[in-house]
Amino acid sequence: xxxxxxxxxxxxxxxxxxxxxxxxLIYNTDEKALKFNEGTKDNPDWFRLNRTNLxxxxxNTNFSARVNNGNKAPFMGQIxxxxxxxxxxxxxxxxxxxxxxxxxxxxxxxxSLINNTNSNxxxxxxxxxxxxxxxxxxxxASTAYTRGIGDHxxxxxxxxxVLELNAGDNISVTISRTDSFRxxxxxxxxxxxxxxxxxxxxx
Length: 203
Known about the structure:
The model has no long low-confidence stretch (mean pLDDT 89). The strands form 3 sheets. Strands 6, 8, 9, 11, 12, 13 and 15 form a 7-stranded antiparallel beta sheet that branches. It is elongated, with a radius of gyration of 21 Å. It is mostly beta strands. It has 1 helix and 17 strands.
């Protein structure tokens, strides 16, 4: 029935500590974590102590809508887990996830796609890329041709990216058509519910 209550600070008050001693330990109420000053008193560097890195994972529920139109793809239909709702703000209606702390983030995206044109003449490939605040960012994934009928209708795209993000940044994913034998709205959709997902982890 005894213990030590570590001094509590928000991130703002933590950063306002004047010349914090090397090794000073606090509890950050914004991050819900113990942190200590790994730097010097003149140049503090607050290091987070945690058992696991905080993450969020979402998957699709919509598998009827066209997703290869260059708009934000609906990966956020269902939240599989969210370790820290103050850190990750899942905005399903806007098909994006907002991060509320600056830092380095691992982002993994898996998209399982099907060419549902129902035509042997429609050969279609697709690209996938992250968007940060609506701007394309990081590497992109690309498929070979799929066909609209037979055994070649399905394909998948995968991204594994590490990015430095700012507090308030919005993460989304776009999938776009890259080529086809014909012009027009050639359609790809997700295979099924929960067949595609996005995972974000603060490192």
